[in-house]
C-alpha cells in the first residue's frame, strides 16, 4: 500500500491532516463524509495517465507453479488507469476491498485531500463485479487501507490525528451493513511494537505482520530488513513478536502476509529469489509440526500483496514500470486450476 512505504511522508501527512482540518474544516468533518459531493474515480484520473495492460507491459507477471493459470488483470470495473492497491477478498470470493489513488505521481499529502483516494468495495453479482464504491472509516480526514476482514470485524491501517505512531492499526464493527465504532487497536501493537502491514486470523487472536526487530526498518517495502513475525493474544495481551524463521524470512525484505482461510498457507510479498525484477509473491505451507515450510516463489515480476479466496485463486497487485518509473497499478488474478 502506498501510504506504508515512505516514512518521510508520514510526518507530512499528519501535518496535512492537522492543517487542512484547521484551515478548511468545512470540507473535513463538520458534516459526515457521506454528505460530501462524490467524485468518481474516472473523474480524477489525469488525461495524460496511460492505461497499461499485458500488451504494453515490460515485466508481465509470471507464475511458476502448474497449479495456477497465467495471471491476468481482474475482469470488470475494478482496474483503472489509476492505481489499485492493498487488496482483500472475502473467503467466498464475492466481496473485494482495495485502496485507490488516481495518480501515483501525486505526493501522498495531496492524495489525502483529493476527494477520491481511499478504500473501495466491489461485490460480485451474477458472476460480475459491481462498480466499486468508496466507503469511509472516519468522519474526518484520514488515509486508510490494508483491509483485513474477519466476520463482523474489520482491521485496517490508518494515518489520522490521534495515532500513537505514524500509521496505526484500527478495528471497526459491521452494523446493518455499515462500518462503525472505528477504534484504535491499542498502544501495544501501535506504539510498543509499531507493526507493519498485517493479517489477522479468523479468531482474532493471532496477527502476522512485517516488522524490523532491530529498528533499522526504513519504512520502504524494499529497503531495510523487515521480516514476517507473529504475535498471539493471550488474556487480552499481545505476546512479544516471534519471527517465522528462515523457512519464510530471507536476507531481503519479506512483508505483507496473508493467511489462507483454513490457516494452512502463508502468502507474502518478498524480493524475487529466482532473479526476476522487483517483488514476488511467495507461499509457505504449514508442516505437521505446526511450523511454516520452505517458501516457494509463485508469481514474479512486480507482484505483491496477495489475497486468496477459499477456492485458492490468487489476487495480487501488479505495478507497471516503464523506463524505471511506476506508471500505475492493477489487480491481477491467477486462478487455481
Blueprint of the fold:
Layout: H1 7-23, H2 41-44, E1 62-63, E2 72-73, E3 83-89, E4 95-101, H3 108-111, E5 118-125, E6 128-129, E7 133-135, E8 143-150, E9 153-159, E10 168-175, E11 178-184, H4 187-193, E12 198-200, E13 206-211, E14 227-234, E15 237-238, E16 242-243, E17 254-259, E18 265-271, E19 279-285, E20 296-300, E21 303-308, E22 314-322, E23 325-334
Instruction: State the order of secondary-structure elements, H for helix, E for strand.
Output: HHEEEEHEEEEEEEHEEEEEEEEEEEE
**Rough shape?**
globular
The name CATH uses for the topology is Neuraminidase
- Overall mean pLDDT stands at 87
- Overall strand count: 23
How many structurally independent domains?
A: 1
Tell me the radius of gyration: 19 Å
Unreliable segments (pLDDT under 50, ≥5 consecutive)?
Answer: 2-35, 216-222
CATH architecture: 6 Propeller
Rounded to the nearest angstrom, the distance between the terminal CA atoms is 28 Å
What topology, given as strand order, has the largest sheet? 1-20-19-18-17
Helix fraction? under 10%
Biggest beta-sheet profile: 5 strands, antiparallel
CATH secondary-structure class: Mainly Beta
The total of helices stands at: 4
**Beta-strand content:** 35-45%
- The class by helix and strand makeup works out as mainly beta
Give a short synopsis of this structure.
The protein has helices at 7-23, 41-44, 108-111, 187-193; strands at 62-63, 72-73, 83-89, 95-101, 118-125, 128-129, 133-135, 143-150, 153-159, 168-175, 178-184, 198-200, 206-211, 227-234, 237-238, 242-243, 254-259, 265-271, 279-285, 296-300, 303-308, 314-322, 325-334.
Amino acid at each position: 500500500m502506498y501510504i506504508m512505504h515512505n516514512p518521510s511522508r508520514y510526518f507530512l501527512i499528519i501535518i496535512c491532516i492537522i492543517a487542512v482540518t484547521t484551515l478548511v474544516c468545512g470540507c473535513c468533518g463538520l458534516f459526515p463524509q457521506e454528505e460530501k459531493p462524490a467524485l468518481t474515480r474516472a473523474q480524477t484520473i489525469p488525461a495524460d495517465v496511460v492505461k497499461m495492460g499485458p500488451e504494453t507491459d515490460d515485466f508481465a507477471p509470471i507464475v511458476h507453479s502448474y497449479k495456477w493459470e497465467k495471471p491476468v488483470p481482474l475482469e470488470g470495473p475494478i482496474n483503472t488507469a489509476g492505481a489499485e492497491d492493498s487488496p482483500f477478498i472475502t473467503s467466498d470470493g464475492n466481496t473485494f476491498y482495495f485502496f485507490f489513488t488516481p495518480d501515483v505521481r501525486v505526493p501522498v499529502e495531496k492524495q489525502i485531500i483529493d476527494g477520491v483516494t481511499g478504500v473501495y468495495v466491489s461485490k460480485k453479482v451474477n458472476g460480475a463485479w459491481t462498480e466499486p464504491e468508496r466507503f469511509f472509516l472516519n468522519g474526518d480526514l484520514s488515509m486508510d487501507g490494508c483491509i483485513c476482514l474477519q466476520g463482523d470485524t474489520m482491521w485496517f491501517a490508518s494515518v489520522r490525528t490521534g495515532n500513537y505512531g505514524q500509521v496505526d492499526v484500527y478495528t471497526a464493527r459491521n452494523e446493518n451493513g455499515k462500518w462503525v465504532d472505528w477504534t484504535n487497536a491499542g498502544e501495544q501493537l501501535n506504539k510498543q511494537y509499531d507493526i507493519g502491514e498485517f493479517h489477522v486470523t479468523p479468531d482474532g487472536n493471532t496477527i502476522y505482520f512485517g516488522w524490523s526487530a532491530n529498528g533499522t526498518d526504513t519504512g520502504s517495502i524494499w529497503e531495510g530488513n523487515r521480516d514476517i513475525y507473529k504475535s498471539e493474544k493471550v488474556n487480552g495481551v499481545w505476546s512479544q513478536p516471534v519471527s517465522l524463521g528462515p523457512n519464510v524470512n530471507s536476507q531481503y525484505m519479506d512483508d505483507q502476509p496473508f493467511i489462507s482461510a483454513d490457516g494452512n498457507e502463508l502468502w507474502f510479498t518478498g524480493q524475487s529469489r529466482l532473479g526476476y525484477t522487483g517483488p514476488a509473491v511467495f507461499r509457505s505451507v504449514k508442516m505437521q509440526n505446526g511450523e511454516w515450510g520452505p517458501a516457494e516463489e509463485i508469481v514474479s515480476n512486480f507482484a505483491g500483496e496477495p489475497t486468496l479466496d477459499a477456492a485458492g485463486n490468487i489476487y495480487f497487485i501488479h505495478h507497471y514500470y516503464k523506463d524505471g518509473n511506476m506508471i500505475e497499478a492493477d489487480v491481477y488474478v491467477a486462478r487455481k486450476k
